[in-house]
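Researcher: Structure for this, please.
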Amino acid sequence: MDFSYTEEQQALQDSLRRFLTKEYDFEKRRHISRSAAGYSKEHWRTLAEMGVLGLGIPEAHGGMNGSPVDTMLIMESFGRALVVEPYLPTVVLCAGLVRDAGSEAQQAALLPAIAMGERVMAFAHYEQGSRYALEHVATTAKRVEGGYVLSGTKSLVLSGAQAGELIVSARTAGDARDRAGLSLFLVPREAPGVSVHGYVTQDGGRAAEVKLSDVHVGADALLGQEGGALPVIERAVDLAIAALCAEAVGAMDALVETTREYLKTRKQFGVPIGKFQVLQHRMADMLIATEQARSMAIVAAVKVQSEDAAERRRMVSAAKALVGQSARYVGQQAVQLHGGMGVTEELCAAHLFKRLTVINATFGDADHHLAQVSDGLLVA
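Model: Predicted structure, token format:
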């Protein structure tokens, strides 16, 4: 299998990295993450102009009809620069859900606006006690004349307070852990009955708790088939996991580079500590772990396109498990090799390790996905 990028993909990644190197250095990133908005609207517009926001959107709706491999090269670059813009929740998750489940009218209304950088969206799905189980949804959607009434609470909604519109999963039938009976709804964040409490996450990103108290939405707010949303949700989350694996590889790349440079400049006993053989061995192990993670990120990007849901989930889980293990190893080694400076706010290495730690916990940590892989082997 040929894992090399095409000329078009390489050109897109090169132009994106040049932009990030010039406009998204460590100090600028810290300023953006501490701002009230939590991201740069100017950079968001620039990403739209570059075609990055429309990469996975069909051409009929102003996009480039890109593949998960295209998303991988974008996310890898984002990982290197610690980009905090809401690309994952808006473009990967929500645009993917609208693309796969939305009606023609919904796609025409939402996808071009996302591609042009005019709309930020968030996927409100996880709830307290769900422990990564995608079918665990207690939020209800009751039919009323002309639409539905939604009630429930959603936790850890990525970019929930930044979004103008939410895609909310709710149960139109069945019990809290049934696979059937899940539906998706488009809900404006400012709709009556919607309460959003935003907060800053450990890695400098943004998330929110969303409470829905008798929120009325019209029948046209239903996204996809009533009661049949779980397969669409699983596919969207798998795509997001594959994207996160690529972002983690980019962050590990940056950690290896910054650690290598530190070992070249930090002196002890009159010589750079990078000349000590034991530290060279540790750097080699970090590089090997990063390259193993890159291989699995490529596998995830390729296999996430499979129409076989069981194979797709198995390979994505295998990638997430190995990437999570590698990210923890590379992060720990980088912090130790930097000494006490490795955990300070002023050093990029600490922020890279924080981001890798959060990535590992997002959509299931390494232990969860190892269990998924082993359970799949038992069934097979």
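Researcher: Any notable elements?
Model: The longest helix spans residues 230-265. The chain has three domains: 7-119, 122-227, 231-379.
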